[in-house]
Specification:
This protein has 2 helices and 3 strands. It is of the alpha+beta class and about 70 residues long. The protein is flat.
Length: about 70
């Protein structure tokens, strides 16, 4: 098992400019991490999956990739 940080958005409680929330877990792979997040917080949108538990690095990857798209 590896550490993952799943970034997700819950539009019911956040504005479009808010940074996503983070869910940390241990999982076999990114898909397993996503599944765990959705089991804990149903009806959210998964926006990024980062290996490890560092929120600053996960957000940096997320924002930098979003800007490149």
């Amino acid at each position: 098992m590896n550490d993952y940080l799943v970034l997700y958005r819950d539009e019911r409680v956040m504005s479009p400019v808010d940074a996503p929330f983070g869910f940390t877990c241990q999982a076999d792979d990114a898909e397993h991490a996503e599944e765990q997040c959705l089991n804990a917080y149903n009806d959210v949108d998964i926006v990024w999956i980062h290996p490890g538990r560092n929120m600053d690095m996960a957000l940096s990857d997320y924002w930098n990739t979003e800007a490149d798209a």
